Amino acid sequence: MKQEDQVIAILGIGTTVPEFRLDQADTSHRLTDALRDNPNSARWAKKIFKQCGVETRYTCEPNLLETAENCRYFSQNNDQAPSTSDRMATYKRESVPLALQAANRALDDAQVDVSDITHLITVSCTGQFLPGLDAALTHQLGLAANVNRIPFNFLGCAAGLKAVCLSRQIASNMPTAKILVVCVELCTLHIQPSSDREALFGASFFGDGASACVVGVGNDQQQPIFQLGNDHSILLQDCADEMKWDVGNHGFDLYLSPNIPKLIGTWIPEQIEHLLAGGPRPEIWAIHPGGKGIIDTLEEVYGLSADETHPSRTVLRNFGNMSSATILFVLDHTRQELANRGAGPTSGISLAFGPGLTCEMIQITYLGIPVHDEKQLDESYV
């Protein structure tokens, strides 16, 4: 690649999920069975499980596949539910192998050697331990001992895209940099033994997964996937209570306000216009599927077609919301669909939302790939 043609881009993407698959209808049936002594909550849970846009998702916890009587996460007896300490022990055991798999897939996809990685950004909000994920990955991937490690902890769903934006900023100031971003989230570990609507809503659509990408300037051996353009971050005013995640005795207690889609529809278009700066309407809309309502709102505001929201809806349907890891699943699905259509360079935007409320967004351009390198659409994305 000639010097004048060099662009800062996502060079490779890797995604993975745990082995245990949660079927939405089956999970709803087992949860409502656990709520049989609270029929109002059972009816509400059954309704939200059906309407949230998820059909399958994955978990690292086999106990979540057990019957209502044997599932500690569904139990309405807090004495039987896993403590926060129990859940963090599972997170520490299960997160590193999953993150390693995603990272290795991204490195292979990018055709980048571990010795080329100058920066490691690790992202997670569903568990913590020290020495952390960044140290574990440095040792087990064989990264240089002096690799620049940047942990993003407890920043929520938007953190994966924030890490991509930071990677672009690093590469713009250091063209020789190769940044490895690794996101791993084990959201299902925080399913609560509760009949409260807030807890049941969170239980209805979160899943586990890991994703990774390599960001940097491509060379003759590396074919850039998405060129990264201008990025923009905004923290909305007076919205701090709309999305919260507190540490409780039985995992993390999540609250998601029903007002979130409306707030996004009201305030985010102005921010998108700020990023676009009068430029053309994006052709690609890689939206983090934080919930079906968020996709519905942006689809309505911008008149998006079913094809434009297909990657986001498909990831939500097949994997659920995997918090920070989800946006790279969406970008990978988008890349595969465009490649299978033989698309040429295509401009777009990627957006993700998190507690605050905060929104991260970045302009992207799919650059196309040679025919002999095309990936066939993975069956999990169909």
TrEMBL record:
<dbReference type="Pfam" id="PF00195">
    <property type="entry name" value="Chal_sti_synt_N"/>
</dbReference>
<dbReference type="InterPro" id="IPR001099">
    <property type="entry name" value="Chalcone/stilbene_synt_N"/>
</dbReference>
<dbReference type="Pfam" id="PF02797">
    <property type="entry name" value="Chal_sti_synt_C"/>
</dbReference>
<dbReference type="InterPro" id="IPR011141">
    <property type="entry name" value="Polyketide_synthase_type-III"/>
</dbReference>
<feature type="domain" description="Chalcone/stilbene synthase N-terminal">
    <location>
        <begin position="9"/>
        <end position="217"/>
    </location>
</feature>
<protein>
    <submittedName>
        <fullName>Naringenin-chalcone synthase</fullName>
    </submittedName>
</protein>
<dbReference type="InterPro" id="IPR012328">
    <property type="entry name" value="Chalcone/stilbene_synt_C"/>
</dbReference>
<dbReference type="InterPro" id="IPR016039">
    <property type="entry name" value="Thiolase-like"/>
</dbReference>
<comment type="similarity">
    <text>Belongs to the thiolase-like superfamily. Chalcone/stilbene synthases family.</text>
</comment>
<keyword id="KW-0808">Transferase</keyword>
<feature type="domain" description="Chalcone/stilbene synthase C-terminal">
    <location>
        <begin position="239"/>
        <end position="363"/>
    </location>
</feature>
